[in-house]
Amino acid sequence: MSRLFQWLRSLKQWVEQSAQKPGATWTLFGIAFIESSFFPIPPDVLLIALAMLVPAKAFRYALICSVGSVLGGMLGYLIGYEFFELIGRRIIEFYGITAQYEHVQELYRQNAFSTIAIAGFTPIPYKVFTIAAGAFEVPFETLVYASALSRPARFFLVAALFYRFGPTIKPWIDKYFEILSIAFVVLLVLGFVVVRYII
């Protein structure tokens, strides 16, 4: 366990150092973009680091994150719509949720907008739903509208917390880093568990 925490602290230092580099906003945009189609780590990690360092720019970072994520969702849709057999299926198989992925089609039949919006706001792996939206030919505008609502809602909520409390949160995060790390990993894993065993 101590090795895990040591690795997490090293990762935390890397994120904080990355947040201080000139190209940090482009890195944030890039992570938000690829996370919506195949990358496993959510952009919230870097968004939090940036907002914690410069709370006055928290909403700007949230906007960058939102734009990158919505555009990345469009890429996920394209992968599902045009390249599912070549790329999309491999992504789904990589996360081990092939059977559950097929059940997503039924959710889309019931209410595609709500399904995508919930996936976009919660820790549920969003990429699964963007790829599925393309593969199951959900109207493209439904994906865009649901993403444009849910992703900013999530990222601006994070930004609002750091804009309000600013650097005063950092000592608290440093003090309870291990507990927060466990909570974050649990949420991330629970997102995949929901897709794999509940949906």
Protein topology:
Elements: H1 2-19, H2 24-35, H3 44-53, H4 58-82, H5 84-94, H6 98-121, H7 126-135, H8 140-165, H9 169-175, H10 177-198
Helix pairs in contact: 1-3, 2-3, 2-4, 3-4, 3-8, 4-5, 4-7, 4-8, 5-7, 6-7, 6-8
SSE run: HHHHHHHHHH
Give me the Rg, rounded: 17 Å
Inertia-based shape: elongated
Q: What is the arithmetic mean of pLDDT?
A: 82
* Strand percent estimate: under 5%
Distance between the termini: 31 Å
Percentage of helical residues?
A: over 70%
Largest sheet descriptor = none
Q: Helices and strands: which structural class?
A: mainly alpha
Instruction: Please report the total strand number as a whole number.
Output: 0
Please work out how many helical segments DSSP would assign. 10
The low-pLDDT segments are: none
Give a quick set of tags describing it.
mainly alpha, 83% helix
Summary?
83% of the residues lie in helices and 0% in strands. With 199 residues, it is an all-alpha fold.
Tell me what you see in this structure:
The chain has about 200 residues and is mainly α. The protein has a domain at about 60-199. It is about 85% helix and about 0% strand. It has helices at about 1-20, 25-35, 45-55, 60-80, 85-95, 100-120, 125-135, 140-165, 170-175, 175-199. The model has no long low-confidence stretch (mean pLDDT about 80).
